[in-house]
Amino acid sequence: MTTSAQWIAGSRPRTLPAAVAPVLAGTGVAAYVDEPVWWKAASAMLVALALQVGVNFANDYSDGIRGTDEDRVGPMRLVGSGAATARAVKLAAFASFGVAGIAGLVLAAATSWWLVAIGAVCIVAAWFYTGGKHPYGYLGLGEVMVFVFFGLVAVIGTTYVQTETFELPALYAGIASGCLSCAILVANNLRDIPTDREVGKRTLAVVLGDERTRWFYVLLVIAAAVALVGIALATTWWALVAFVHVVPAARAVRVVAGERAAGPGLIPVLQLTGVSELLLGAGLFGALLLA
User: Fold this and answer.
1) CA nearest 203: which of 110, 140, 115, 268?
2) What is the DSSP letter of 132?
3) CB 25 within 8 A of CB 176
């Protein structure tokens, strides 16, 4: 039987900052322009976390049945390693999407029903990242979708359900968070270039190649910092407190572009980038709430 520790590892907890950070940032913007609605913020957090876990299990299932995880360098995959059956992992993905859907329906009922359509698109995008006959994650489009859904949609949506307005600072915060979420995926795919190329998985990293992927990672980190300046200009200079995120980001850049680590040597970059995004979101939340 699959142990609880294996299920937790299979949910890929190191990716969860990509779900938490945009909700924190969006709630910070809501607090600055109006008043935060804490139960809605908590519901948005549940939606984001459930979607992140759901997409992780969905990727585990889809990659596992395709055989693309058999020689994986990174964290354990449940199906690829044989630790869990494909059916069990698929059900775990659907259960996670169900939790996200229920929480999303509650938010839509209290805000606006057109949000149901946004939620449905998010779930479909999560499944078809590696699922279906033509997964877009195999076509070099993964980073685009991560930027849109775990950056723009997550931050702007979190602000909107609390204020029912579209705010410029939320757009900037979505760009910053989306860039760092993309950077996590880029680092992951940089590590997996050799195995992905071997099984025909054409991620953006495979298309760009090792050298250009490393510089793309650096560009994303810089773009997040520039977007943070935009947030400060649109709100308060206290928002620059979130520049604390540069500390782990700089260490990650050094590993990627300076030390030019490869394979397992890139695994710490995932954690550093996740911590960086979490610090950015928490910094914006605290600064804008207090401002």
Assistant:
1) 140
2) S
3) yes
